[in-house]
Amino acid sequence: MAIATALTLRAVFRLALRQTEGLIASVLQLLGLDLPVPDHSTLSRWAETLVVPRPEARGAPVHLLVDSTGLKLCGPGEWLEEKHGSKRRRAWRVLHLVTDADTGHIVASALTD
């Protein structure tokens, strides 16, 4: 179960194996759990043979909800830029989400400029 979860997170966030190992360790530490973390070499071996079941396709039509929202990228010094005026154009991204109306699961997502 832990290996399948780690490999799923790796696929979702497009992480390298060592980054996946670090992410899992950080999450467990933040949760205060003292559980073993799968090593990157173990993840590599299991990634070749592990079959992750995909959700079954339904025969009924699926109702999808599409939403887009703007996200402003913030960083250190954001307050000073606001106070004294911005010398550069603010960075915005648009997050597009497609969700299943019945289950609320995110079906697709995209982040654009």
Explain the overall architecture.
With 113 residues, the chain is α+β, with helices and mostly antiparallel strands. The protein has 2 domains: 48 residues, no CATH class; 49 residues, no CATH class. The protein contains 4 helices and 3 strands. Strands 1-2-3 form a 3-stranded antiparallel beta sheet, with no helix packed on it. Strand 2 and strand 3 form a beta hairpin. Helix 1 crosses helix 2 and helix 2 crosses helix 3. The longest helix is centred in the N-terminal third of the chain and has 14 residues. The two termini are 36 Å apart. The model has no long low-confidence stretch (mean pLDDT 83).
What percent strand? 15-25%
Determine the fraction of residues in helical runs and give it as a percent range: 25-40%
Give me the side-by-side strand order of the main sheet: 1-2-3
Task: Give the low-confidence spans.
Answer: none
Number of domains: 2
Number of strands: 3
* Count of alpha/pi helices: 4
The SS-based structural class is alpha+beta
Could you tell me how far the N terminus lies from the C terminus, measured between alpha carbons in angstroms? 36 Å
Feature tags:
38% helix, 113 residues, 4 helices, flat, 2 domains, alpha+beta, three-stranded antiparallel beta sheet, single chain
Which helices and strands appear, and what pairs or packs with what?
Elements: H1 2-13, H2 17-30, H3 40-49, E1 64-72, H4 78-84, E2 92-100, E3 106-112
Antiparallel strand pairs: 1-2, 2-3
Organism: Belnapia rosea
Protein name: Transposase DDE domain-containing protein
Pfam families: DDE_Tnp_1_5
